[in-house]
Amino acid sequence: MNYCSHCGQPVSFSIPEGDDRPRYVCRSCGTIHYQNPIIVAGTLPTSGSRVLLCKRAIEPRKGYWTLPAGFMENGETTLQAAARETQEEACAEVALENLYTLINLPHINQVFMIFRARLQGSFHPGPESLEVALFEEHEIPWDTLAFPTIERTLRHYFADRPQRDFPLHVSDITLEDRQRYFRGAAS
To answer: Which residues does the UniProt record annotate as the domain Nudix hydrolase (predicted)?
Structure first.
């Protein structure tokens, strides 16, 4: 990348303030051009019968509950991304298990990948989380889950758990599905 797509001025490859990776930065307008893969990787961390959720401290959906997940960075595997996001959002170490949900979101050009994981030790909110807590199935805050991908993953998990069989679930969330989810969450 040589020029800013926002203002047309030259960009430099440098580490922006507050970041730890080099990015293309416009010297004129200050725009940072992120070039991340469009993969969201995360975990479904469990401890016994409970699931770990994080209350988001950042937009989008600040104040809503989610599984620890986020954008995969260049140079890492999906497993590394899932573990890193769990550490960043919940300050938690996990033992990763199988890929559990792979959800395509073609309308926003994302692939959402969640791995089952066993919580190892303590946890507390990272800078991207307001709270981090363990929930039994009957305690899940269904009305305040951040995204349809989170709800779908949790519903699969609680349906599969009685049989102790956790196959890979592959599905799509369309624009219409997403709009329906957010309309329901707003009511």
So the answer is: 33-158
Please count the other Cβ atoms lying within 10 Å of the Cβ belonging to residue 121. 9
Query: Taking the alpha carbons of 56, 59, 63, 65 in that order, is the dihedral positive or negative?
Result: negative
In SS3 terms, 124-172 reads as CCCCCEEEEEEECHHHCCHHHECCHHHHHHHHHHHHHHHHCCCCCEEEE
Q: Are 69 and 41 in contact (CB under 8 A)?
A: yes
Per-residue model confidence as pLDDT tens digits over 69-104: 999 998 999 999 999 999 999 999 999 999 999 999
Strands 50-56 and 23-26: unpaired
Query: What is the topology classification, in CATH, of domain 39-186?
Result: Nucleoside Triphosphate Pyrophosphohydrolase (3.90.79)
Here the tokens at position 92 are 């938690």
- The pTM for the full model equals 0.80
Tell me yes or no: is domain 1-35 CATH 2.20.70.10. Answer: yes
Cis ω before 10 (30° cut-off from 0): no
